[in-house]
Amino acid sequence: LNNALDKYKNGMISEDVLDRTKIQQINARRELQATESSLQKLMCQLQGNLAVNDEITIADSVDSHMDTEMSLHFESVHTDIKYKESVLYYDQMQLKQTKALNYPSLSMTYQYQYNWAADQFMNYGNAITYNSQFLGVKLNIPLFTGFYNKHKIKEAEWDVKQAQYQLDATRIARNKDDEMLKIDYIQSKHDYEDESQILRLRQDADSKINDTYQKGVISLDQRLDKYQDLLNEQNNYIKDMGNYLIAQYQVYIRHINF
User: Fold this and answer.
1) Are 1 and 223 in contact (CB under 8 A)?
2) Containing H/E element for 234?
3) Please, which contacts does 124-127 make with residues 24 or more away whose CB atoms are closer than 8 Å?
4) Which residues contact 240 (CB under 8 A, 6 or more apart)?
5) How many C-alpha atoms does 214 have within 13 Å on its Cβ side?
6) Is residue 8 a contact partner of residue 18, using CB atoms and an 8 Å limit?
7) Average pLDDT per block of 10 residues along the chain, 258 residues long
8) Contact 152, 101 (CB under 8 A)
9) Which residues are CB-neighbours of 84 under 8 A, at least 6 positions away?
10) If you count Cβ atoms within 10 Å of the first and of the last residue's Cβ in the chain, which end, N or C, has fewer?
């Protein structure tokens, strides 16, 4: 902007070009603010993905993560799948116990006693000792509980079917989540790599254009057009880099076996 003001004072550019330079500066400031807001949003999104409310500080360089190749083969099982598996196992055990009510049950009891008999309290000198044993067998035949047992078995079978359905549905949903996570990771990686190449080319081109501007080959108006292209490309780079970092952290969290 100072360069444009000097040229305007010297009559080298028109007022329209000066106004456009001011507009360009305002847009550049807005792009910077938008980029800072995008970084804040990405940090909030990262906190949400990590399920933490504490402030996150990234100590190392972002560039150290850009070339990291992450495995997309997930061996850990989702926690909600583990929970649904435990519910199914519990309902299956309950069904076995309920079905056992229809069968006769046999129980045995054994008791052994050793006794003293004396004519005075706490005087065991002349006490007579004797022992006794008891053996009992109990057979329980469910003759009048058939209707009740049948009703309980149906309830238990329904619980097993419902638990199995919920487990299957959860497995399908989590598998689809994993597939979408892989797609997002691969796409964000390709977008970041492509945008990195585009930004390098745009920076090289902008450096050459600036040289031609400094030599007076092109006007300030043309220089501003090309510089706006560079700002747009930098903004696209920040967005693609943020999306790639988020995808990396999501893959990392998926690998954790809770």
Assistant:
1) no
2) helix 220-255
3) none
4) 188, 191, 192, 195
5) 6
6) yes
7) 60 64 76 76 73 65 60 84 94 90 80 72 67 78 76 92 95 93 92 93 91 83 81 86 84 76
8) yes
9) 163, 166, 167, 170
10) C
